Amino acid sequence: MIDHNFIEGWLFQDEDELLSKYASICNGNILEIGSFRGKSTVILADVLKEPYKVYTIDVHAPIDYYELKTDDTGMPIEFKATGKRNVLKYHNCKMFYDNITKCGLFDKIVLIGLPSQEAYKVCPFENIGLLFIDGNHNFSNVRQDFNNYSKLINDDGIVIFHDSNQDDIKRVIDGFTEGWKVIENCMTMTVMQKENK
Ligand SMILES: C[S@@+](CC[C@H](N)C(=O)[O-])C[C@H]1O[C@@H](n2cnc3c(N)ncnc32)[C@H](O)[C@@H]1O
To answer: Separation of 155 CA from ligand 1 center, angstroms?
Structure first.
């Protein structure tokens, strides 16, 4: 296993192992929402079988291309280009590329530098065996991420939620994942599979 301990992130050791376990048996590409500096991305890509890829979505960009407007319930209604510089995002993006290159995984990972609320509209994701949701953690975003991306998953595929101990994420898992069942909980991760499997 590639040493990923130098990469900054928020995963417990048992969670590293859980991601690694499901990525190693995944029959399809992996879709990750929330790459940050690439820790979970590297863990997933390290053991994923050839010729599959890890597609990872993050709002990494040297410029803040979008400003999100929401309605009263927090549902996004409009993205607007702003063109503002964002030094932190630029730094995270650079660290991400440095880290995946250091780990020798550049060719196995595809970064999509868009908000998850937009990426699915423009990227033709195919053959997804595992979805890892770890982007914006508020209720409406997690709910949308699950709705928009779970329908792209193969019949025998799985979804893993990070930080499922947080109220907003727990609320999505408990009330808004019809047709899916929990198959494993580990630390702050919850793994789900389609109910008919
Ligand atoms: C908790 S971090 C991801 C950590 C990473 N999975 C790991 O384990 O190292 C959350 C990431 O989600 C990204 N993010 C937040 N809102 C997003 C959105 N709407 N679309 C895409 N990415 C988003 C942030 O830029 C941040 O890098």
So the answer is: 26
